Amino acid sequence: MANKSAKNQLRKNKKHMKVLRLCLLGFNSWYLLFSYLRGLKFGFGSILMYIIIAALQVIPFMLLKNAAKPIYEDGNLISGGKDLNAGFINVYAHDILYLMWILLALSAISPKFFWFLLIVPGYVLKKAWTLFLKNYLFPPSPEDTVEETQKKKKQKVRYVR
């Protein structure tokens, strides 16, 4: 029973990565095949947008692949990899993958759906601003933090028995 949780995690990660790999290949094949059958002309713009979407698929996929990588020591399984459904970066990587697959499916119907690709940088900039940049570029002054804690204390509801 040693390393049962590591073996279970390894099994779940392999299954999850197989599903992601099949979706990656399936949606890209769908786009190329359906675009070809519809007679979509692969001009410079379409090829460039496909390359951008492909890169935006490969980066999160490789990040998840590295997170799922098991750790072995002397042939023994130490860790089955990180849980792909939990964590800060893994959740955003899945979101980007899902968005890219939706864009590929829709872009095969009409190239105008490529404009929705602007959602990704907007989302990344918003998250970067709220999580990192705002506090580093405009650090809160000590007076502001004291005032905020006093406001919270005043707003706290007190129950009397």
Structural write-up:
The protein is mainly alpha-helical and 161 residues long. The protein is built from five helices and two strands, in the order H-H-E-E-H-H-H. It has helices at residues 4-38, 44-67, 88-107, 119-137, 142-155, and strands at 71-73, 76-79. A two-stranded antiparallel sheet has the order 1-2. Strand 1 and strand 2 form a beta hairpin. Helix 1 (4-38) packs antiparallel against helix 2 (44-67). The chain is flat. It starts with a helix and ends in a 6-residue tail after the last helix.
Please specify the SSE layout and strand pairing.
Layout: H1 4-38, H2 44-67, E1 71-73, E2 76-79, H3 88-107, H4 119-137, H5 142-155
Antiparallel strand pairs: 1-2
Helix pairs in contact: 1-2, 1-3, 2-3
Which oligomeric state applies? single chain
The gross shape turns out to be flat
Helix content, binned percent: 55-70%
Say how many strands there are. Answer: 2
